[in-house]
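Reminder to self: tokens first, then the designed residues, so the page reads top to bottom the way the pipeline ran.
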């Protein structure tokens, strides 16, 4: 038996097998998923003394979605009134949009179909016992070979003129739920999600004298940006006394580009509240709020960034083919 010939054939087969494996791994399913859900229920504004009255309420809802190869969609709704209902049809792009219902603030059913969707909804009176509900979701999924991107997002903004009958502390309270999830299938794919809530009270033309003396350059006298940073939750005038600290981390981001480190943060509805640390004088003020969610995912061509196993197969195949060529030349 010709041992050298047999060895050469064996190594040749190993090289071919490694090359085939490399090709197969290059065609492996890529993919990325991102979800950002931001919900507030029973959102109320109360005062420690006297009463609050409301006028000139308005709310704006805007959704956006973009799926590579398709046109970006950006609808918008504007509604006014104390119990305004700002709702726009969800926007969705991709083959997986069928069967995704309007105002669904939860992960979509597991599917290999691709989509990007955004949806936002605000309704109810912030000064009633039941409060108002504000919900937003951005979600995207891609399972493809070759470079691809998908983004989804939404914003809810509004303003309400508040009148205090007497000096009092202002309290925001609500039930909040967050659901952030990111995952990727292939090394190099990326998934990033974010949510943000900001509430503030500002001076207006009818505000009491001295309002601006406690305000920043934008006329804001009290701000709640709940990201867990005490300074960001405190009064604009720099008075960080008890009651204005922010113990919550409601503004969050999450992301991953590693298949081994999917990230998720999910909480059931939990109670949150924040009270101003000074009594606001009687008079008129404006409450402004803004909330948003966003998902950005990028799927790359797996052939561009080989996985470690792929690199091993490639090295094995090249070594085997080189050894075979050298034996044959002898």
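Designed residues (330 positions):
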């Amino acid at each position: 038996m010709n041992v050298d010939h047999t060895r050469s054939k064996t190594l040749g087969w190993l090289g071919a097998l490694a090359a085939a494996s490399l090709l197969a791994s290059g065609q492996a399913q890529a993919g990325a998923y991102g979800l950002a859900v931001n919900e507030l229920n029973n959102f109320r504004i109360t005062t420690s003394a006297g009463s609050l009255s409301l006028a000139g309420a308005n709310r704006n809802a805007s959704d956006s979605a973009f799926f590579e190869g398709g046109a970006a969609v950006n609808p918008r709704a504007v509604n006014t009134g104390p119990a305004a209902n700002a709702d726009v049809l969800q926007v969705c792009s991709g083959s997986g949009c069928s069967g995704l219902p309007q105002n669904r603030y939860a992960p979509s059913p597991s599917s290999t179909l691709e989509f990007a969707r955004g949806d936002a909804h605000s309704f109810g009176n912030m000064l009633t016992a039941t409060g108002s509900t504000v919900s937003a979701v951005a979600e995207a999924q891609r399972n493809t070979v070759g470079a691809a991107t998908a983004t989804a997002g939404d914003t809810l903004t509004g303003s309400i003129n508040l009148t205090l009958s007497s000096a009092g502390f202002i309290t925001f309270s609500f039930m909040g739920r967050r659901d952030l999830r990111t995952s990727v299938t292939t090394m190099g794919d990326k998934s990033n999600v974010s949510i943000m809530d900001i509430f503030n009270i500002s001076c207006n033309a009818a505000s009491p004298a001295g309002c601006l003396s406690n305000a920043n350059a934008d006329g804001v006298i009290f701000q709640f940006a709940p990201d867990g940073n005490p300074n960001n939750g405190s009064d604009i005038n720099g008075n960080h006394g008890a009651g204005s600290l922010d113990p919550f981390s409601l503004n969050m981001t999450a992301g991953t580009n590693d298949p081994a480190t999917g990230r998720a943060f999910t909480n059931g509805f939990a109670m949150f509240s924040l009270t101003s640390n000074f009594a606001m004088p009687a008079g008129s003020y404006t409450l402004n709020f803004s909330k948003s969610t966003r998902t950005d995912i990028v799927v790359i061509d797996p052939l561009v960034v080989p996985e470690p196993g792929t690199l091993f197969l490639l090295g094995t195949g090249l070594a085997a083919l080189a050894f075979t060529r050298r034996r044959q030349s002898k």
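Residues 3-26 form the longest helix (24 residues).
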